[in-house]
Design goal:
This protein is of the alpha/beta class. It has 20 helices and nine strands. Strands 4-5-8-9 form a four-stranded parallel beta sheet, covered by helices on one side. It starts with 13 loop residues before the first helix and ends with a helix.
Length: 464
């Protein structure tokens, strides 16, 4: 019987198989957005077992386990990783149709040469075989990256970070670059939490921050520090874009109010956040960075379990469609003064696909190829149906050939087969279009298209 993960997995036709194996399969990986730990990379860490590397922080798996009736203690509680793994193995057969089923078996095949289906019967042997391999030097964090032909990793880092691990990794074969993630600067709901963060920024910078002007000066210095450490991208995880008709004309008053411990009202909040985001984006343009906006997550929906477990534990979902007017006005407020940096927009609600693709077309200016990018299918859309819709919508309303491609957006060092997953789905989509006569069966066109969206476009766009 044919193995589930086989050379032509997900490739339906002859053309899809040809372009995948000839143009995509062997391309290096540029993973410009992920949540890997630079500390674990710098320390060249070896994971103790398969349960640890798979289940220690993977809220995708936790959501599936909860849905399958697995008690919370086996997701975030105290049982051993072996016990947790057995509960995951119990869940896996029920994830058929979910990307977790594909990802699980791709990772077993690519990292451990295991092609058995994971289920309660095979769980023990798979666990022990993979766990023994993980203890070997060849499976250290640095070697896992090199074995998967990863050329660049973009981690996610707060402006207060001292970037010590990135600095230690400056001579490592794989580029491990920080990504500026300043989201705490707009989290104004709780003045105490906000002020605690400003104090951390004061400590990191060695400067006092009493005014909005002081804050901007410190951020410019931190931004420059990140640039010196190799940072060439920012990332902003926002519920939505902010825009105020009066252009956030009084940020000093808003900053003074919240520093004094008082809550901002709705108008002050919108104005402050709009102005802060403007200023952050101006820094990105000033230093020639790429800025990324992940829009549309409704986070921490379950108050009881958020209070118990904290954020990023699997209680987030897709929010309402985005406000196209505010996105337009925000981008235009930068573009009108030639201060709009290269920008990638990611949506989480699939109802926003067409709007996002047409929105980026408004701000292409011919100075940079594909300056404005429609970001990869993200989070809940990072699956076969979501990727196919993303490819179709970008093809119909933009230029698929200029797309900068996939990211893992993952905390797991075993997640790199997700790039293979995307490449297979993309080649299958393109191959089917060729077979239908929608795209010409021209080797030069297909080679440029597939190599571009697999690797070359990202390399060129970011300047790595």
């Amino acid at each position: 019987m044919k193995k589930f993960i086989h050379p032509d997995f997900l490739l339906e036709g002859k053309t899809a198989r040809k372009i995948y194996h000839e143009y995509a399969e062997n391309q290096p990986i540029i993973d410009f957005h992920c949540h890997l730990s630079p500390k674990l990379i710098a320390e060249n860490h070896n994971f103790d077992n398969l349960g640890e590397v798979w289940l220690a922080g993977d809220h995708y798996k936790w959501r599936a386990m909860r849905t399958n009736g697995i008690n919370e203690e086996y997701c975030t509680g105290s049982p051993s990783f072996y016990e947790k793994f057995l509960k995951w193995a119990e869940t896996v057969p029920n994830t058929v149709g979910n990307p977790l089923y594909h990802w699980t078996h791709l990772e077993l095949a690519r990292h451990f040469n295991i092609f058995e289906l994971l289920n309660p019967k095979t769980a023990d042997s798979i666990y022990h075989k993979a766990s023994e391999m993980l203890k070997q030097e060849a499976f250290s964090t640095q070697n896992l990256l090199k074995r998967m032909k990863v050329e660049m990793v973009g981690t996610t880092d707060d402006p207060v970070d001292n970037l010590e691990y990135h600095i230690k990794l400056k001579d490592f074969d794989v580029q491990v670059r920080p990504t500026w993630r300043p989201d705490n600067l707009i989290k104004t709901e709780n003045p105490k939490t906000f002020n605690n963060y400003i104090e951390k920024l004061e400590e990191a910078s060695g400067k006092s921050i009493s005014t909005f002007g002081d804050l901007l000066a410190v951020l410019d210095e931190r931004h420059a520090f990140f640039h010196e450490a190799g940072c060439r991208a920012s990332d902003h995880g926002l519920d939505r874009m902010y825009y105020s008709e009066d252009a956030g004309s009084n940020p000093e008053e808003a900053f003074k109010k919240i520093r004094g411990g008082s809550k901002l009202n709705k108008t002050e909040t919108e104005g402050y956040r709009f102005r802060m985001m403007q200023e952050l984006c101006k820094l990105n343009q000033k230093r020639g960075w790429v800025q990324q906006f992940h829009l549309g997550a409704m986070r921490n929906n379950n108050t009881r379990l958020f209070n118990k477990l904290g954020p990023d534990t699997g209680f987030d979902s897709i929010a309402n469609p985005q406000d196209s007017y505010k996105i337009s006005r925000f981008l235009d407020s930068l573009d009108v003064n030639n201060q709009l940096a290269k920008t990638i927009l990611y949506n989480l609600n699939p109802a926003d696909n067409e709007m996002f693709v047409t929105m980026i077309g408004n701000f292409q200016d011919g100075t940079v190829t594909g300056k404005m990018q429609y970001g990869a299918a993200w989070w809940f859309l990072d699956q076969k149906t979501g990727m196919e819709k993303h490819l179709a919508d970008l093809s119909a309303l933009g230029l698929l050939s200029r797309f900068v491609g996939m990211v893992t957006d993952s905390r797991s060092f075993l997640s790199y087969p997700r790039h293979e997953y995307y490449r297979r789905i993309a080649c299958n989509y393109i191959g089917n279009e060729v077979d239908k006569g929608v795209i010409p069966n021209d080797p030069e066109i297909l080679k440029n298209l597939v190599e571009g969206i697999s690797y070359k476009n990202a390399k060129s766009y970011f300047g790595f």
